[in-house]
Amino acid sequence: MTNSITVLIVDNEPGFADLAGEMLERQRDSIVAESATNAEAALEAIETRSIDCVVSDYEMPKITGLELLERVRESDPDLPFILFTGRGSEEIASEAIAAGVTQYLQKESGKEQYALLANQITNAVAQYRTETELRESERRYERTLATLHETTRDLMRAGTKREIYQSAVDTAGEILDVSVAVAYAFKPTEGTLEHAASTRESRELVDPKLSFEHGEGHIWDVFSEGESAYYEDVTRDPENAKTVSRNELIVPLGTHGVLVAGTEDDDGFDETMTELLHILAANTEAALDRAEREQLLREHDRTLTRQNEELTRLNHTNEIVREINHGVAQASTRTEIETHACERLADTERYRFAWIASSDDTPPEPTAWAGVDAAFIDRVREDGDHAPEIRLIRDTLEAEQVQVVRNVLEADGWDGRRKEALTYGYQTILAVPLVDSERRYGVLLVHVAGADSIGDSERAVLGELGETIGHAIRSVERTRAMVTDSRLELELACHDSRLLLNRLAERADGPVAIEGIIDRDDEVGVFVSTPRETDLTSLDQWASVETLSTVSEGDDEILFELTVTSSPFLDVLRTYDVQLRSATGEDGTTTLVLEVPQQVEPRSLVEAIRERYPETELEARRETTSTRTARQLDTHLEDRLTAKQFEALQVAHYSGFFEWPRESTGEDLADALEISPPTYHYHLRTAERKLVALAFDGESE
Questions:
Q1: Quick one: 396 and 471 in the same domain?
Q2: Under a CB-based contact definition with an 8 Å cutoff, are residues 492 and 617 in contact?
Q3: N or C: which end of the chain has fewer CB within 10 A?
Q4: How far apart are CA 693 and CA 686, in angstroms?
Q5: Within a 10 A sphere around the Cβ of 362, how many other Cβ atoms?
Q6: What is the tally of structural domains in the chain?
Q7: C-alpha gyration radius of the chain
Q8: pLDDT number for residue 701
Q9: Model confidence, pTM
């Protein structure tokens, strides 16, 4: 039994040793007596067996009781040793006390002495065991502190939070000898405590998927309040369903989470265990703080490195763009602009190659390239609409924004370009729209080594380059159009009922024609001639018509002026810089004759009109030449006339003022423009004088 006391009785008289042992066993059921007849046998018994107390005679052959005491004290200074002798003297008692005897008792006759001896043995052993347990506890505590110190060093050397959590729970399981040791980490984005680490023994008892949300269980309460707590028999509480063991000691780890130790033992946790777990938790929190700071520093360093690299690339890109802009400004043709841009981009270590596809063709066709052989361009052309580059080009034109394929080797739809990407050494493709405020000219494609290797700043700079190229192309094409006499006329037939002229023709008994268009700042004046019997008074109720006024009435037709804010058809004419030469509507069809500048691709223009009016057909295409185009004359007039003078001249022309007999009077035109007749005649006569001077004197006034 665990509380028994083993007593070794040493006496050179075997009969007495056995008798004394029997008497002691009668006095205490817990005493188990053994005997030895000499000191040598006693020392051997002490070395080989667990002895709780030694009761020895003084007078023995060879080795006395005091000498035996000295030998015992050499190996165990605290083992209870009672000198039970028949020879008593103050000298012996003094020597025994000096040698470290526990008790000194003289042999006497009678049974009472054994009761006294049994009492002394019991008290001495109880004290010995208490002191031994205390010393062992102190040693365990010192070993535990040493373990904690070593763990602290490990925690501070740990590279990640996961390692810190795991080291903490392993140490808790070791020093506390508990069945459950688990850590939960707080996830700010989810607002929950998630399982972070647990000991091997805990994994069979704790579900790693178990988490705690706001207000769930004691674990969340401890974390939110920031104060540790000990809970006994928590499994008996039906409202606390989320538990890890019967008895739980929960310690918060600051804002990082909690450390939980659990046991099924009835004794639970004592003060020492609680103190040790608090020390461990404090060290763990400090380690987590350190790891978090280091992680932030590493992320900051990575961010700075990435920003420095991006800044270096951006500076290099800006330098390239400046050189391209300089070359573009000196170019005189669209081909020169596109070729220069591609060559300069390809002539860098940053970009593998570059090419431009024109939006004037269907599908878009490569028009310039550099840094890549013709085999790649031929492959794109052969694939046609099925080429992934063509899909990218169309997406870019539709969005009018820079598009990026971050990794050709992994992007959907780019499987057929794996061989080319590996052969030519690119993974990232940047598609830049070439646009100005009115038109889309194509897309610049830049191929870059590495995956996802284009930053936002570089992307924005190249996007601005696309706008610069677009403006430059428009500028050279406008310049070319101004110095050439060649013109292209397109004749279109529009059957769409939404077109304004078709809607007007529905109310007329005969053809309706647009005589002229005056484009003012915030509105458009349209002069329309209709048969004499036409009634357009209901047009005032149309949302697309702001005002309606009669300019003149002839024998066969009437001239009206309609004021409209704008229309999809007029917007297309402005965008492509196209002049409307004539427009006649009858029986649901309007015939349009357009004068198209050389820089405009006819197909793009027709498609733009069809987008607004699907029922439009191309009827004819004609090339025209002249020694001096009307456009050039318009340009000279606009340079010399004020806006009021130019408008007065246009209104007079469109209203038949210069016909004979006149189809309208100056007063009619003044009313249409809402000005006084003298003011109108002043503007008209001034415009006529300047027009005549231009015709006879050329550039002079």
A1: yes
A2: yes
A3: N
A4: 11
A5: 11
A6: 4
A7: 53
A8: 42
A9: 0.43
User: Do residues 540 and 680 share a domain?
Assistant: yes
Answer whether residue 638 is part of any domain.
yes
Is residue 373 very low, low, confident or very high in pLDDT (cuts 50, 70, 90)? very high
> CATH code at 202?
3.30.450.40
From residue 13, give the alpha-carbon distance in Å to each of 25, 37, 569. Answer: 19, 6, 136
Answer yes or no: do 171 and 47 share one domain.
Answer: no
Distance CA 453, CA 346 (A): 16
Residue 446 belongs to what H/E stretch?
strand 440-448
Cβ–Cβ < 8 Å for 541, 529: no
**HSE-up of 28 (CA within 13 Å, CB side)?**
23
One DSSP character per residue, 468-537 reads HHHHHHHHHHHHHHHH--EEEEEEEEE--TTSHHHHHHTTSSS-EEEEEEEE-SS-EEEEEEEETT---G
Helix (H) or strand (E) holding 363: none
What single DSSP character describes residue 202?
G
Q: Please tell me the predicted confidence (pLDDT) of residue 240.
A: 54
Mean pLDDT within 620-626: 74
3 state DSSP class of 437 = coil
450 φψ region: left (φ > 0), alpha (ψ -120 to 50), beta (else): left
Answer yes or no: do 498 and 608 share one domain.
Answer: yes
Q: Which tokens sit at 693?
A: 């001077």
Residue 643 has pLDDT above 50, yes or no: yes
pLDDT, position 633: 56
Q: Are residues 435 and 535 in the same domain?
A: no
The answer to whether the Cα torsion of 698, 519, 538, 584 is positive or negative is: positive
Tell me which amino acid residue 360 is: D
Q: Rounded to an integer, what distance in angstroms lies between the CA atom of residue 155 and that of residue 149?
A: 10
Asked if residue 145 belongs to a domain, the reply is no
More confident residue, 156 or 345: 345
In a domain, 663, yes or no: yes
Q: Which of helix, strand or coil describes residue 462?
A: helix
Tell me how far CA of residue 56 lies from CA of 45, 73, 344, 621, in angstroms.
Answer: 13, 14, 109, 136
More confident residue, 329 or 385: 385
Query: Phi/psi zone of residue 528: left (φ > 0), alpha (ψ -120 to 50 degrees), beta?
Result: beta
Q: Are residues 500 and 456 in the same domain?
A: no
Answer yes or no: are the C-beta atoms of 154 and 283 closer than 8 Å.
no
Q: Are residues 70 and 93 in the same domain?
A: yes
Pairing between strand 440-448 and 351-358? antiparallel
Roughly how many angstroms between the first and final C-alpha of the chain, as a whole number? 134
Whether the per-residue pLDDT at 200 is higher than 80: the answer is yes
Which domain, by its residues, includes 586?
A: 486-696
Q: How far is CA 401 from the centre of its chain?
A: 21
Q: Is residue 57 part of a domain?
A: yes
Q: Where a domain ends, among 100, 134, 168?
A: 134
- Given the DSSP bridges, would you call strands 257-263 and 180-187 parallel, antiparallel or unpaired? antiparallel
- Rounded CA gap, 371 and 227, in Å? 67
